[in-house]
Amino acid sequence: MQKLSSITDKLAGRAAVLGGAALTAGGITEIVHSQRHAGNRVIGVAGYLALSFFVVALISIAPSFLALARRARPGLAMKAALAAAAGTTVLGVTSITSIVNGHDLALFNVLAPLTNGAWLLGSVVIAVSLKRAGTVPTPVAVGLPLAWVATIPLATIGGGVLSGAYYLAIGYLLATAAIDHTRSTAPQPATA
Fold it and tell me: What three-state secondary structure class fits 38?
């Protein structure tokens, strides 16, 4: 746990910006050269580019889960962050085999559902905890599981552009220490 706490917000933010840029580039690649009908094969330069951007993005966004969980209610959020970070990292590393072989290996078909489940479930738990804690703006919390939806189910139609925008914003907010906010109450009118 000590080494995980040494991941600063600035580092997590910069990594999230890299991940957001990679997701956006992959999304644009998918829009221009769709891989929708590729199945488990990597087709052409566009397929290799999209998958390479995907790998970079997944590994890069992992620290952001830990940084966000530090702002959530204590307890379950950090465990969920570890699951989500492990899910994206393992999925990214496993996807390297698809780049090397030009298709998904049988191992990928076993690991992908597990890693995606860890990523999605971890994102939902962190989002709920962030929302309840009220320490970050609501779109930051709500956007976390929605970014998974844009990245995975909507990938072949360019969903990476949406999730990329989310991680670019999160990265900026983390790197510049602008992500935190406190609940404020509206000023009350003076009574006579």
Answer: coil
Q: Tokens 């709500």 correspond to what residue?
A: 142
Contacts of 152 (CB under 8 A, 6+ apart): 116, 159
The residues with which 103 forms a beta bridge, in sequence order, are 41
In angstroms, the Cα distances linking 175 to 8, 16, 67, 72 are: 9, 9, 10, 18
Is the Cβ–Cβ distance between 107 and 77 less than 8 Å? no
Q: Which amino acid is at 148?
A: W
Q: How many CB atoms lie within 10 A of CB 137?
A: 14
Nearest-angstrom CA–CA distance, 100 and 60 = 20
**Mean per-residue pLDDT of the chain:** 90
- In this structure, is the dihedral angle defined by the CA atoms of residues 163, 165, 167 and 173, taken in order, positive or negative? negative
84, 123 contact by CB (below 8 A): yes
> What distance in Å separates the CA atoms of residue 174 and residue 51, rounded to the nearest whole number?
26
pTM of the model: 0.87
**Axis crossing angle, helix 9-32 with helix 160-175, rounded to the nearest 10:** 160
Which region among 56-70, 148-162, 176-190 has the lowest average model confidence (pLDDT)? 176-190
